[in-house]
Amino acid sequence: MIAEKKYILATTVQEAIEQAVANKENFKYLAGGTDVMVNKFQGNETSGCLIDITKITELKGIAKQGDFLRIGALEILEELKFNSIIKDEFSMLIEAALSVGSPLIRKTATIGGNVLCENRCLFYNQSEWWRESIGYCLKCDGDICIATGGKNACFSELVSDTAPALIAMDAEIEYVDEKGTHRQKLEKIYTGDGVKPRNIPKNAIVTSLFLPLNRGFKTAFFKLRERESLEFTSLTSAVTVDKKCKLKIALSGVDPKPVVIEGKIEDDKDLLIKKAIKASRAVDNDMYSRKYRREMISVYLQKSFSILNPPK
User: Exposed, middle or buried by CB within 10 Å (0-12, 13-18, 19+), for 14?
Assistant: First the structure.
């Protein structure tokens, strides 16, 4: 018997959530589709129901709200560069958005989708035939991590590029579920568990991201990948210093969740780098080795510190 396939075009957040509840665990929200559809093609995403949220107007728009800039979750990555407030106060977000994928992907992918993109692993993001031949891993209902040989933890990596940039600028995320509206620091939604990498309810819809205005951020952004276009990150480094000299480091690509280190610009830089490397649980599940990616954390952070606090 062939399972029924559904496509639902929702026009309000409430309608989308109602459809999600009606279809229980057998659904996936669809926006840009640059992550979801590839995973469906590979057999890593098997939901029988797609709920298209692209027509929900309340998920769009960029505007000031009090002390924050609200960015709708459906805003397209490529179009962020045209917003004057983002250019003036949060230019690193544009840099991060323009580092994602290829030009064609950036004209379709949304910022909400990028912060929620599924964790990746060299042994998981393959065809169904490939995964079956090597043996299923923890992330696809197997009983072992192929990368480490362990049975207790999945180390598939967070590969979002906008997430570390947003986190380094103290972004908050807002989402809605059947219980109401929720808002918290963006870094708090990531669990560190590669199998279930986020702790927001599956039925929830991310509505927007909020960036604090008038912080005077100075920023440094670097991304490690094999090719300058298309590739997912092997290490993304975002570092900020605000006008009160608060320093914040956020890394992706080297752990199932963002690596976040906070301090002051006058803090011991070697100690900050050691903390970042120690917090990064990178394993050999990437085209670059664990050893090399950990070395590049030090290289990128040293470069960032020289940009943000140049020697006098």
Answer: middle
Please state the pTM of the whole predicted model: 0.95
Domains of the chain and CATH, by start: 1-54 (3.30.43.10), 67-116+156-308 (3.30.465.10)
Q: How many Cβ atoms from other residues are within 10 Å of residue 57's Cβ? A: 10
Q: Are strands 246-252 and 235-241 parallel, antiparallel or unpaired?
A: antiparallel
Dihedral angle, C-alpha 266, 269, 271, 275, nearest 10 °: 110
Q: Is residue 114 scored above 70 in pLDDT?
A: yes
Residue 2 has pLDDT above 90, yes or no: no
Cα 295 to Cα 232: distance, rounded to the nearest angstrom? 19
- With DSSP H G I counted as helix, E B as strand and the rest as coil, what are the percentages for the chain, rounded to 5? 30, 25, 45
Count CB-CB contacts under 10 A for residue 151: 10
Instruction: Output b/e per residue, 187-213; b: 16+ Cβ within 10 A.
Output: bebbeebbbebbebeebbbbbbbbbbe
Place of tokens 């020697």: 311
